[in-house]
């Protein structure tokens, strides 16, 4: 419904609707809508003035040819001077028009995606709606420890060593910690490919066009690591390189849906993050994640979204983790999303919910930026809808697995990943 929302034409035709949906997302700069229309009025005036000058130049040029044919050279010369005068006035007009068009585009990209009508109102995570819960919270033994203490006790993760080598938020996994990480990645990828997702191993850095295409720029520029000399961005998620595989392409309708999965490390500056909520694996600057991405026909994107939610839910169920699914309210949604479901698992030792996945439908927002299109029944290219989801992000999954499966001297390994890990538990003998 909002696939063309990036165009100024859509905003002009549905001004009240655009303002209403932006208000649901708690967008603070709704005044931009009116400013965009005023700027577009200016663009239209300059465009009309430019076209009138060009029309006059063309008309007079034809007249000059006729006058020369009749031998009226003096009058023809006067007309040539008129053309020169018009051309002189056209140059600054053209420059002003180009400037206004750039200003219009710069202002347009400041507008977030319009939220779906399914999005509940609200300003903060407290207003999110719990869709359903599943799994059973474990009864931990006396003296149960949080994952950062377990990681040290069983020599799985060294946070201090990561701080030495790089800095805070860059842990070092070793021994069975590294093997458990690798096992989870392989398990997630196998689960996704069996469901029909094609596996990719994309670059871990992208150019500006790719970051703009998925909406990280200009919205999250301050959260991304930037390689200054080469003008590349370290990816915050596999969504960025994977979705851009089809940038500037027209895909066959018969090829939809296109389903992709990828493992990548992810890099996020997480500027301003501090306190108990960032301890251990709770918030990192570098972490591993397996992602799923779909490109669909617009009328099938919400069906695909529900399919992806069920896919991630089954993955968490097979890890035997207590979880809940939240439908995000307008104030807690991402810049590019039309509708998002978050998955949280319960961390028994910390006694808190940890977000481990977001599954989102972006409708045509990203596709408009990236010009990913398909030819529908009318033969005209139109934007696909793009979706993505974490399947899964490893740090908090690993944190919950360690905490929820701890016993006095061992940590049990979930049955689903035992074939990859090669054992059913981690003991102090392995440390």
In short:
The protein has 13 helices and 18 strands. It has helices at residues 8-13, 15-24, 31-69, 73-108, 147-153, 159-165, 176-194, 208-213, 239-243, 301-318, 365-370, 394-404, 418-421; strands at residues 129-134, 157-158, 172-173, 198-200, 205-206, 226-227, 232-234, 250-251, 258-267, 286-296, 323-327, 339-347, 352-361, 373-375, 381-383, 385-393, 410-412, 425-427.
Jot down its keywords:
431 residues; elongated; 13 helices; 18 strands; eight-stranded mixed sheet; 20% strand; alpha+beta
Note down, in words, how this protein is organized.
By secondary structure, the protein is α+β, with helices and mostly antiparallel strands. An 8-stranded mixed beta sheet has the order 1-11-12-13-16-10-9-4. The chain has a 3-stranded antiparallel beta sheet with strand order 5-7-6. A 3-stranded mixed beta sheet has the order 8-14-15, with no helix packed on it. A hairpin with a 5-residue loop joins strand 14 and strand 15. Helix 3 runs antiparallel to helix 4 and helix 5 crosses helix 12. The longest helix is centred in the N-terminal third of the chain and has 39 residues. It is elongated, with a radius of gyration of 28 Å.
